[in-house]
């Protein structure tokens, strides 16, 4: 992956690198905006492939204020400059994602916090309004070719990365169900036959009735998609849990996870924090996030 990034940036010859030569030099990695450091393995690998060394002065997962000397890169000056943009782009993107998700009990420097972020608002609610707070997860809406790095950044920030790809778990979305003539039971049974006991099946549900059918069919996870936050969502979750709790007159005990997704924003966060929900997923914690600004300056 890193080799492909380097080849994209230098497909044939680095003319600027020829100008500067191969004298051994040092360059300082400077953090120029507040953030949490993430993406260290990718940064290291860029320069390892270019025969340079990296010495880190802060740990991955630490937050910092500008201007922060985060690391020192040493090697042939032409190689340092060859890897500069690829390494900085990767670090800026990963750190931006991790910073977006940063836990409220690992606060950013005071000067960097202009207003509560979606993530910090949600996490505060998760940990203070339910005895069993749900996980906050990302999605598969990632940058093509950069998913591994973005999922890694979610982990560093403390989020659940969710499934990595189509092979990680079977998720039957609305298009899958429609392609099976709307038959959730048939779709789930076919998916379980294909994946066997080792692959979970999740079903995206647009109504309570669809969620009930999915659980009856054996889905391990039901996603309540675009349900109105608050009373509507809370009522559906409570009824689902009660229906399959195994009490007298009910349908028998079924173990399953409930994920909620769709329409999450700063204004409606509280309505998604419902007892009985296991996972809240949103692409807002990794899609379109602001990058952390870094620069690499040669010591002279």
The number of helical runs is 11
> What radius of gyration results from the CA coordinates?
23 Å
Which spans of ≥5 residues are poorly predicted at pLDDT below 50?
A: 103-116
Mean pLDDT metric:
89
Strand order of the largest sheet: 6-11-10-9-8-7
Order of helices and strands: HHEEHEEEHHEHEHHEHEHEHEE
Which class of secondary structure composition applies to the elements? alpha/beta
What is the straight-line distance between the termini? 32 Å
Percent of residues in beta strands? Answer: 15-25%
Characterize the biggest β-sheet. Answer: 6 strands, parallel
DSSP E strands, number: 12
The residue fraction in helices comes out at 25-40%
Overall form: elongated
How would you describe what is shown here?
The chain is an alpha/beta fold and 300 residues long. It contains eleven helices and twelve strands. The chain has helices at residues 2-9, 15-20, 40-48, 77-101, 118-129, 147-157, 174-179, 184-195, 208-217, 231-243, 269-272; strands at residues 24-31, 35-36, 53-56, 63-64, 68-76, 135-137, 170-172, 201-205, 221-225, 257-261, 279-281, 294-298. The strands form three sheets. Strands 6-11-10-9-8-7 form a six-stranded parallel β-sheet. The protein has a four-stranded antiparallel β-sheet with strand order 3-5-1-12, covered by helices on one side. Helix 9 links the parallel strand 8 (201-205) and strand 9 (221-225). The model is unreliable at 103-116 (pLDDT under 50).
